């Protein structure tokens, strides 16, 4: 079963899914802007209609404990948008961490994750369905970030949930994999995020050898990388047989990325990336892997 903000669903009902999104987030205190603050609104609902109109059924919402997560807002968004929403538990980059994390034990952090996954978040009965987006810096993983990752891996093993990460500019994925897998979590339950930004096939092959899933999840963020480069790399990896280890999304973390505010929007995967893949001969079966089949497997919290 897969946990959503409205309750559990059968994995077969997940449908087309965006793997890494923000629907209710507040990063403004660190970023020093208001562009990174948004939640339930008429504009957001209008924006999300572009997703449902494009055939999307589910969004994995990775705004975790220190990113302004608001599960009550997410429940309302789900009810009014007809999108299934999988919400998260976790802690992001160290500069976003609450002060107590520095002196907390791995066990202290793990306890929070397990409670959010099995009891409910912030005194509600709304449960997380994934741990993430836990994060590491571009060139290192800090001691606090390492504690969070170890706690995440242990909580994942205990509950059967998946873990999704933030690899800054796509870097440090092998180090994240080494750390998380050393705690006993299963590679098939791990998504390493923002790998599209690395733009390096040799690097991708190194990461894929771990048996993990790569997030090509910043589609439409053309200031970082042209979508044509993402598409070229996707086609090559799919030709090499890796469609079962890749998921897609847009990682909308600013209002200005939304189409209602002039950006390319949440539907960029469906309205541009997927048509381009089809035009280049990528099979329906491979596209189903990227959009639904992989995530149905990864998000299923059934334990062995």
UniProtKB/TrEMBL annotation:
The keyword Glycoprotein does not apply. Pfam families: PTE. It comes from the Bacteria. Keywords: Hydrolase, Metal-binding. A divalent metal cation 2 binds at residues 133, 166, 194. SUPFAM superfamilies: Metallo-dependent hydrolases. Binds 2 divalent metal cations per subunit. A divalent metal cation 1 binds at residues 20, 22, 133, 251. Its cofactor is a divalent metal cation. Transmembrane segments: none annotated. GO terms for molecular function: hydrolase activity; zinc ion binding. Its EC number is 3.1.-.-. The keyword Hydrolase applies. InterPro entries: Metal_Hydrolase, Phosphotriesterase. Belongs to the metallo-dependent hydrolases superfamily. Phosphotriesterase family. This is Phosphotriesterase family protein. It comes from Lancefieldella rimae (strain ATCC 49626 / DSM 7090 / CCUG 31168 / NBRC 15546 / VPI D140H-11A) (Atopobium rimae).
């Amino acid at each position: 079963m897969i946990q959503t903000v409205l309750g559990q669903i059968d994995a077969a009902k997940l449908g087309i899914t965006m793997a890494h999104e923000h629907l209710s987030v507040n990063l403004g205190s660190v970023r020093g802007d208001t562009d990174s603050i948004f939640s339930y609104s008429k504009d957001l609902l209008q924006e999300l209609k572009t997703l449902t109109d494009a055939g999307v059924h589910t969004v994995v919402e990775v705004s975790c404990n220190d990113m302004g997560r608001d599960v009550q807002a997410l429940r309302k968004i789900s009810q009014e948008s007809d999108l299934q929403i999988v919400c998260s538990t976790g802690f992001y980059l160290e500069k976003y961490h609450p002060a107590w994390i520095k002196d907390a034990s791995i066990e202290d952090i793990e306890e929070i994750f397990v409670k959010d996954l099995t009891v409910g978040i912030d005194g509600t009965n709304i449960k997380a369905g994934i741990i993430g987006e836990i994060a590491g810096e571009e060139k290192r993983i800090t001691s606090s970030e390492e504690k969070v990752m170890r706690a995440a891996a242990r909580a994942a093993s205990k509950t059967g949930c998946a873990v999704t990460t933030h690899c800054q500019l796509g870097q440090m994925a092998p180090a994240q994999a080494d750390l998380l897998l050393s705690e006993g979590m299963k590679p098939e339950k791990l998504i390493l995020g923002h790998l599209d930004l690395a733009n390096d096939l040799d690097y991708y092959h190194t990461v894929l050898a771990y048996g993990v899933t790569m997030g090509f999840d910043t589609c439409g963020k053309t200031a970082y990388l042209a979508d044509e480069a993402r598409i070229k790399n996707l086609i090559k990896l799919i030709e090499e047989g890796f469609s079962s280890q890749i998921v897609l999304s847009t990682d909308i973390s600013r209002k200005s990325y939304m189409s209602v505010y002039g950006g390319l929007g949440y539907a960029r995967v469906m309205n541009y990336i997927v048509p381009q893949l089809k035009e280049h001969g990528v099979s329906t079966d491979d596209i189903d892997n990227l959009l639904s089949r992989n995530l149905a497997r990864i998000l299923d919290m059934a334990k062995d």
